[in-house]
Hints:
The protein is an alpha+beta fold. It has helices spanning 44-52, 94-104, 109-122, 138-150, 168-185, 196-202, 220-225, 230-235, and strands at residues 6-15, 18-28, 33-37, 59-64, 67-68, 79-82, 156-160, 189-193, 205-210, 213-218, 242-249, 254-256, 263-265, 278-283, 288-292, 303-312, 316-323, 326-333, 343-348, 353-357. It folds into two domains: 6-226, Rossmann fold, CATH 3.40.50.300; 232-357, CATH 2.40.50.140.
Amino acid sequence: MSGAYLVLDRLEKRFADVAAVKDVSIAIERGWFVSLLGPSGCGKTTTLRMIAGLESPTSGRIFLEGRDVVPLAAADRDMAFVFQFFALYPHLTVFDNVAFPLRAAGHPRAEVERRVREVSERLRLEALLKRRPRQLSGGDLQRTALARALVRRPKAFLMDEPLGVLDARSRETMREELRALHLEVRATTVYVTHDQSEAMSLSDRIAVMSDGRIVQFGRPRDVYERPASLFVAGFVGSPSMAFVSGRLVAPGSRFVDPKSGVVARAARGLLREPERGEVTLGVRPESLSVRRRNGGGGPGAAFLARVLHTEPMGSHNLVELEAGPARLRARVGRDVVFEDGAPVEAECDPAGVHLFETASGLSLESPPESPT
Length: 372
């Protein structure tokens, strides 16, 4: 960990009796785009503000290029912070807003002009340089804020939900532009968001946070396909993963819930046996197939359910199912339609079955290999 570009080492932050960040340790390599992902109040913004120097940690250290920056003031850390609200100077033009950090640092006029023009071209702001913030759309305001951060060429970019105030279409567009910009510049970036779609599409690595702790850190695909806990499994993915409580029977990877009749088999081996044998099955819509009832599937393969509703999603349909007290969703083709109340058979793809210990909420499966 000590050789990484940006390292958080046992970082903690307390406000009076409240622990906002607890024992956070993470290593970020140069050029990575890392998202701190979690619900409101989980400690992600506080963590970002400690990296920036806007908050002082109660304990722990922050290393940038091997140097502990905790003793340094925010202005001396050479990091650029992009806020959720654009924080532009309303009386200055776009050009002057972008140029402000360079002028404040005493750069020559010609260099300021050249660097502002370069970053403005990269972010498609050339035609807006003479406008003031009140004359800009939300997307253009955020491009201006990004340009002001980018023009400094800092050691790291820190972004606190920078797309949060944009409408859905503008967020999608800016997400694409942020990813393209990162692929071009390859600047080390730490990005705070509660939107798992943003984190999945933008990030090289995701740190999922809950109750002040990092509960999983890895590639987006690993976080989605190999969630470390019930919390991660339920938070990452849209629609969210469905859960059913039950037990394992011999051989140990076969799941049975007598109440709902749901059965499944996991393709991956178990790291350990669950305490008291109580487990929770997790399955995503794309890993659940559904067909019209034809007398029952093979033993241990399919279970009976009833269609509650079919939701058209354009490219596909989502079928909401009821199996006793359990509720599940299956993703089917857009031409596949079931009548409400229709009896069906459902079957879990073993490769998409996740098993968690009910008591602890932790995955019973072997974790993915550590990201490199």
